[in-house]
Structures are given as C-alpha cells and as structure tokens.
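Hi there,

I know you've been waiting on this one. I reran it after we fixed the sequence typo, so this is the corrected version. Both the input and the resulting structure follow.
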Amino acid sequence: MTRLLDAQGLEISHEGHRTRLKWHRLRKRFADPLFSAEVMAEGFAAGASMELDLRVRADGGFVVLHDEELDGETTGHGPIAEKSIGDLRDIRMQEGDRPLILSENLAAMLQSAHPAALLQFDIKDDYEAIGAKGIEHLAAHFRDISASVIVSSGSLDLIVAVKEKLPHLLRGIDSTDKLYDLRQTGGWKAVEMELRADLRGPTEPDTIYLHWPLILDAANGGFDMIALCRDEGKRVDAWTFTLKNPEVGFSEEEWRNFRALMALKPDQVTTDEAPATERAWERRMAG
C-alpha cells in the first residue's frame, strides 16, 4: 500500500492549515480516462479524496456517469433513467473501451480503501427522479460501509432522505446555483442568510460545495463564506480549480486566484490536476 507521505496530489499545507485536493470525476490528472476504476484503486491505496457522479437507472440502481444521456460518455444511447442494469452490461465507456461502474460494484471496491480515503457520491438526479426505490437501493448496498463515503447533491430533499436511511454516511450539499441567483437579486446579505439557513437546515451537512469564483467574489465583497461555514462547524469544498497548463504550472492570473483562495483556508479543493497543482504550489512558495 502506498504510504501517504509518498503519494502526490493529496493535499496542500499553508499557514498551518491542510487543504485536501480532491480528484474530480476519478481523475488524478486530466489526461486520465473519465471515471477510471484503476485511478480509484490508486486513490484508495493512497488515502485520496475522490469524487464520482451517479445517475439513477430505471431499476432504482445507479451507474457512475455524469450526463443524463448515455450518448457522449459511453457507447450507448438514450436516457440513463430508462435503462436497467441488464441494458448497461454490454455498454462501454468511450475512453478505453472500459465497462461501466455500477453501484453494485462500489461497495466491494470500497473494502480496499485506506482509512484516510474519502469517496464522494455526487448524485446528479433529484429526489423526485430517484424516489424511495433509489434510496432503498443505496441503503441495501451501503448500509455496512463506513464513513469513507460522503453523499452529495444539489437536491436537499434527497440528502434528507439519505440521512434518514443511511445516517452513518457523511452528507454534502451544493447551494452554488441558488446562491448565484440570490447574489443578483438580493446581494451578499441575502446570500449569507440563505447559506446560513442551509447550514442549519434538516440535511445536517458535513461539507458545503461551493464554486471557487463565488467564494472569491464574496470575499472581495466583504463576505467570507468559508469562515461562516467553519463557524457553523461545516467543511467547505471549493470546486473546480484546474490548471490550464499543468506542465508549466500557474499562470499569473491562476496564481492570484489560487493564492487568494488558499488564504481563505478551504478544507478541500476539487481539481482535475491534483499532482500538478501540488507541484505548482510548492514551486511558487519556494520562490
């Protein structure tokens, strides 16, 4: 098993604060294939924080994909919500002719995870689409899984349902779209009130997922969103900061933004280039 001290792309330390680097869509590097079981296994061995997307199937189970339609990410066609597990068996990912990862596979894969590893199930469908059958499926397959999993969604009703059926799993919510709209109509005070209500709401989240430009815009407007979340006992994941040129490192604009973000001390940053971001940070800090 990889030792944590030997692994790359896991975290950045700054002024006594550790910020984890989360591997977006199971990619350690942008060149990695989308939703790779091999990269997930590497992350489990290293104790990485990783994210995958889940789409509900017609039979109530889930498949690891981002889009509503099979077209694009896979060799299949049509809405995922209309497909059963049997319909997906022979479909392959476009990259690498790999089989799809089904929710039935994930529980077994999680058994090999390092204690420090964290896997985010970002559920893209809302509670109306998933329903009681989907929640029962999650409960049946992940009832005995430890806190190595955090379930997230933009649907607060869905996260409440997950809390009731799987209270031992960590929970995350993403209020970004709603907060952007409020920023336009009510200003930062309205954003602060809504964010505080979400933090104290019935989802009882562990982590709040926020778009990093929104975090910086708020800070420039005098509102520290991360500090508010921390005061409420919540973690913040700032998504998704990916270097345009990972071999070169930060451009000057990227460096200004990333340094400002690190000064606010997020608990986690989502990225498609975790090792390159870590290397670029170390080079800049070394002068």
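Quick highlight: The chain has two domains: 19-173, 175-287.

Best,
R. S.
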